[in-house]
Model the fold of this input.
Amino acid sequence: MTEKSIQKNEILVRGLFMLFFIVIYSISKFMIIGVMLFQFITILLTEKPNEQILKFSNGLGTYIYQIIQFLSFNSEQRPFPFSKWPDGMQTHIESGSSDR
Done:
């Protein structure tokens, strides 16, 4: 195979991963709405937020950020399940640009 065809194959493989993450992104939007509603009801009933839901939603928000970074070509690192689930701390993952 020539270098040009190898490069084209890599782009096509990335395109397949992008399709996969578009589906995951769509599902995660509904999950964040569910988490929001659950947390709202919890606060109404107990007058304090659920700590486990706070941690999960923080991780989910970071995960959505990582998906957007990958889909917009700001990162080549594939998000979960191809890397570990984010711990909720929004970290800057590998990108082609320098820090500002």
